[in-house]
Amino acid sequence: MENLFLVCLVPPVTIVEDIDEIKNHISQKFNVHESLKRPAHITLYNPVKLSSQEEERKFFKALEDASFAESFTQILRNFNSFDKHTFYLDVAQNSGIMNLQAEIKKELKPLKLLQEQDNFKFTPHLTLAFKDVKPLVMDLIIAEFKDKKFKREFQVSGFSVYKHINKRWQPFKEFKFKKPLEKPKSFSLFD
């Protein structure tokens, strides 16, 4: 048994439809298709392979512990890129998303699921094109969107886990936020 999971934020359907329209436009005009294989999402923790029920139990328990958070408003604004390999919608950094990602990372760290080099600096973004984009094509995409404006906002009251099934990412589990003050205290000999 080996399962691949992704922890992410998924915008509401109306925003996803707008994003899919942009992804389809880019795909058709520039002949890049890799991003169409993935749902519109903001990665909170890199995909991880879990190979036992015990690993999965610990993984989901850690995510449950990370779900004590306050709701927040997330803004998606305009376009950007990472060098010549990834074109994306900018996800405004705010304390809500930064704290959520830090809490998920903290709760999952003891499980040692990621290599140290995968322990990336978190730059929230929503990918529109990547992997199959050549540098010259990336320049054309950037030029086309350079002066275009995009702004959507939505309320975040939880996060999602997607599972890789039949070569596609599928919704698997939702974690709704719980009141931070209700989080059980961990006990230590030195408290």
Automatic annotation (TrEMBL):
Keyword Ligase attributed: yes
Question: Could you name the domain of life of the organism this protein comes from?
Answer: Bacteria
Q: Among its keywords, does the record have Nucleotidyltransferase?
A: no
- Keywords in alphabetical order, please: Ligase
A single GO molecular function, which one? ligase activity
Protein name as catalogued:
2'-5' RNA ligase family protein
What organism, scientifically named, is this protein from? Pedobacter frigidisoli
